[in-house]
Design a protein that fits this description.
Layout lengths: L2 E7 L2 H13 L2 E7 L3 H9 L5 E6 L12 H11 L3 H6 L2 H4 L9 H22 L3 E5 L4 H12 L3 E6 L6 E5 L7 H7 L7 H10 L2 H8 L5 H14 L4 H4 L8 H25 L10 E5 L6 H4 L8 H11 L5 E5 L12 H8 L4 E4 L5 H7 L2 E4 L4 H4 L7 E3 L11 E3 L6 H10 L4 H14 E3 L2 H12 L12 H10 L1 H21 L1
Parallel strand pairs: 1-2, 1-4, 2-3, 4-5, 7-8, 7-10, 8-9, 10-11, 11-12
Antiparallel strand pairs: 5-6, 6-13
């Protein structure tokens, strides 16, 4: 009997995976398309992939319908899914671009439409597998949680905590992790050897490579296409684009250029470029905001200024809190100056420029704190304990302390200060992580997609032709085959488990 595979397609990536699975695996393919209007024409008319059935997500979403509160209450109880937790952390609703102020009624209307659509899709398809990229918007997270609640095998593609590695997994955590960790035998590697291993999979190097400087020509092409060739219909049809008229978008983008320069001028003047690394300090590297790694992974710890304030309150006497801005925050034109001032005004806190060495801060810190970032993992290589505010792939490490009761933070910091990180613990975890991942530059592959289809990612609503798609599939035949084979391994493994 053919496996039923349901894919969430929000970029050419998962269409390409479907294309390769169709050639190599006996299955029926279904899809939910989460795309803008111009690419929709291609997916409606294409003959490259034979989908049994497909849906366009935004065609089914209403923002002004009478809300069925009883349905939503029943949905929450039936599947144990907290809808407001997902919705309030949605960057589109209130955190990212201030183009449209969503009312509570609009949000609930969108939630109800999504829930009903997703229930109907799963009822009709009854998929064996659900494939998607790791959720970064709340409606995909909702669909993922619904699939999990119904016992559907979810296979999520993600960049793990090692660069140039990719992971296909059922969840953000490692399945059956404690048992597998306890049964793992180490390779007797010391910290120096493991540090060399970490450097060979340097995420910062991978990020720099995959975020090469964007072409000025492509920028002007994108602006021209948007102003003169785009009908901008999705401003009315996609809630993720509500309020984004051409004039408002252009004003917004021009304003961002000015704001970014103002913020950078403030940072150059006020942020610390040099700090005393000999004084005892706890290190908190800021996470990119808004970002799914915080909004989805740590839904109740999204206010980083308040987190910094809480950590500063919990510090033992004699320790300072060093806070470093994330270099990747430049993708959000940095934070507001008022936010930076608020951090600076917190007693016993030092705000450090993003250019300062993260490795030096990790090396000289006494304890590392992070909401859910990779620094908590990297701390173990420097023989430092860490504190996190969410369940992550690496919370399995004994040196990583997951905070669940904020009142205990002071005691947990003191525990971290007195404990010694065991090299065997990290050694065993790295073996487990190797089992969970495979060599594939997913960040670099996303960069190829942005270049090939979307003018370096500067304009998403662009037409796709079969010729353009075929060229991409042909040029990237080997990496796409690698991804497809990794999925097939997961399918076969699941069959053996059954």
């Amino acid at each position: 009997m053919k496996s039923k595979i349901l894919l969430w397609i929000d970029s050419p990536l998962y269409f390409s995976i479907a294309y390769n699975l169709q050639k190599t695996y006996d299955c029926e393919l279904y899809a939910v398309f989460d795309i803008t209007n111009k690419p929709k024409i291609f997916f409606l008319e294409q003959k490259l992939v034979k989908f049994k059935k497909f849906w366009f997500y935004h065609d089914h979403i209403k923002k002004n319908q009478s809300i069925d509160f009883e349905y939503l209450k029943t949905f929450e109880k039936k599947y144990n899914i907290n809808l407001w937790k997902l919705a309030i952390n949605e960057r589109i609703f209130y955190r990212f671009y201030d183009f449209h102020k969503f009312s509570s009624e609009e949000i609930l209307s969108i939630e109800e439409s999504s829930c009903k659509l997703f229930e109907n899709i799963l009822k009709e398809v009854k998929p064996d597998y659900f494939l998607s990229y790791i959720p970064n918007l709340h409606h995909l997270q909702l669909f993922y949680e619904l699939c999990t609640a119904q016992g559907i095998k979810t296979l999520i593609l993600s960049n793990p905590i090692l660069g140039y590695k990719t992971r296909i997994s059922e969840s953000r955590q490692i399945t059956n992790s404690v048992k597998r960790y306890n049964e793992t035998k180490g390779l007797d590697r010391d910290f120096r050897t493991m540090m060399e291993y970490l450097h060979s999979f340097d995420i910062s190097k991978q990020n720099k490579t995959s975020k090469e400087k964007k072409s000025t020509i492509n920028l002007f092409k994108s602006v021209f296409e948007f102003i003169f060739l785009s009908d901008n219909k999705h401003e009315k049809t996609h809630y993720t684009y509500f309020g984004r008229t051409k004039i408002r978008v252009l004003k917004f983008m021009l304003n961002l250029i000015i704001i970014k320069k103002q913020r950078e001028k403030f940072m150059e003047k006020i942020f610390l470029y040099d700090v005393d690394l000999e004084k005892p300090f706890v290190y908190y590297p800021l996470g990119v905001d808004p970002e799914a790694n915080i909004l989805v992974t740590a839904p109740f710890f999204t206010n980083q200024i308040e987190i910094i304030r809480i950590i500063s309150k919990a510090l033992p006497i004699g320790y300072q809190l060093y806070v470093k801005e994330n270099p990747s925050q430049v993708s959000r034109e940095w934070r507001t100056i008022s936010e930076y001032k608020e951090i600076i005004d917190i007693p016993n806190v030092k705000l450090i420029h993003p250019s300062f060495s993260n490795k030096k801060l990790l090396e000289h810190s006494s304890v590392v704190t992070t909401i859910a970032g990779t620094s908590g993992f990297e701390a173990a290589f420097y023989e430092k304990s860490s504190i996190v505010f969410a369940d992550t792939i690496y919370t399995l490490l004994p040196s990583v302390h997951r905070i669940r009761e904020i009142e205990n933070l002071h005691d947990v910091i003191n525990t971290c200060l007195s404990e010694k990180v065991n090299s065997l613990d990290l050694d065993k975890f790295l073996i487990l992580l190797e089992e969970e991942t495979f060599d594939f530059d997913l960040r670099g592959f996303h960069a190829k997609i942005r270049t090939h289809f979307f003018n370096d990612g500067q304009l998403i609503d662009r037409e796709i032709s079969e010729e353009i798609m075929l060229k991409f599939l042909t040029d990237n035949e080997k990496p796409l085959e690698t991804l497809s084979l990794e999925y097939i391994k997961k399918f076969n493994c699941n069959k053996h488990e059954k």
